[in-house]
Design a protein that fits this description.
The protein is of the alpha+beta class. The chain has a single domain, classed as q2cbj1_9rhob like domain (Jelly Rolls, Sandwich). Helix content is about 35%, strand content about 15%. It has eleven helices and 13 strands. Helix 10 packs antiparallel against helix 11. The longest helix has 25 residues.
């Protein structure tokens, strides 16, 4: 399956940075394998659910991603983009305290980082599944900043709308108190039941502390990789005002039948250009499923089997078109 190229243009709302240094993996990456990872089975998922997922890996321990030079550039880029945050509902002041999406539209350095073959090969090996930078540019990379109001969580309990994402800490963890990244050692269905809320929408409240794990970042420039739509997680509130910045690149599974991008949830967001991005994503999925259909369908298939296979191949695109018509 071939990755979907980044769109040629950009929505006007995104201000492109100027004068960035070019991304150079030899200078800006310092990839080190994670010491440990939890599996979906460790979180309590059953065999059927695991078989339908693109990878058995749930979440890794933090591992080094950026070199010192790469970290300095990423931190500077994130600071420059902060003034171009989109504060509209769905992209700014909602579940999160302060953040941006679409960082690849704004920063060529970030876009090249997310599409770096060395990075993608490295992450693909960790989860034993081929990955690509996410096909929806709004979520291909985001930046989370600390909220101005320290009584607010950086992010409440939730699952993500993508198959995989990395959370990379750009701030020295010794410079702030609180703000821990935590995840639930359980399934998202358990988390939803305990908190009484849909996981994609986020929820306050507390989960059983004996089943909550805090990720420990040794330093800035470290991050972890997770199957974001399967891991119930949050970023706690800070105990005092401080800088706390994370970069979150997202990835699709190149096995189209297993990718878990939640297009329906994203279609409710109002990021600039998001509906066109989702249409491109669904067309990409349909194209790959149709290609697979041409290779795999047996000549002995019955009319009903052929029809079902053809309908399955384009179901996502057809359903998304229906969502758009309902929007008017």
């Amino acid at each position: 399956m071939h990755p979907l190229p980044f769109p040629a243009g950009k929505p006007d709302a995104y201000i492109r940075l100027r004068g960035e240094p070019p991304f150079n993996p030899a200078r800006h990456l310092a990839l080190q394998k994670p010491a440990r990872a939890l599996s979906l089975q460790d979180l309590g998922y059953d065999k059927k659910t695991i078989a339908q997922s693109p990878s058995p890996v749930a979440i890794t321990e933090p591992f080094r991603i950026f070199s010192e030079e790469g970290l300095a550039v990423a931190r500077d880029v994130a600071a420059q983009m902060k003034s171009n945050r989109n504060e509209a509902a769905g992209t700014g002041k909602n579940r999160l305290g302060s953040y941006i999406r679409g960082a690849g539209y704004r920063s060529q350095f970030i876009r090249d980082f997310c599409e770096c073959p060395q990075l993608l090969d490295f992450l693909s090996a960790i989860v034993a599944a081929p990955l690509a930078s996410h096909t929806v540019p709004a979520v291909a990379c985001g930046i989370n900043y600390a909220p101005e109001d320290v009584s607010r969580a950086v992010d409440t309990w939730h699952v993500d709308s993508v198959s995989f994402d990395a959370v990379i800490l750009l701030t020295d963890p010794a410079t702030f108190r609180g703000g821990e990244f935590q995840y639930f050692r359980g399934t998202k269905e358990e988390g939803e039941s305990l908190l009484g809320a849909r996981a994609e929408e986020g929820a306050g409240g507390e989960l059983p502390q004996e089943r909550v794990i805090s990720a420990v970042f040794p330093a800035a420039g470290y991050g972890f990789l997770q199957q974001g739509n399967m891991v119930f997680h949050r970023a706690c509130r800070l105990l005092q005002r401080a800088e706390r910045t994370t970069m979150i690149p997202s990835f699709v599974a190149l096995d189209a039948a297993r990718d878990k991008t939640n297009v329906r949830a994203m279609s409710r967001w109002n990021d600039p250009g998001i509906l066109c991005e989702l249409a491109r994503h669904e067309a990409w999925i349909a194209r790959e499923r149709l290609r697979k259909l041409t290779e795999d369908i047996p000549l002995s298939a019955s009319p009903a089997q052929i029809a079902e296979a053809a309908e399955d191949a384009v179901a996502g695109l057809h359903n998304f078109a229906g969502e758009l018509r309902r929007k008017g």
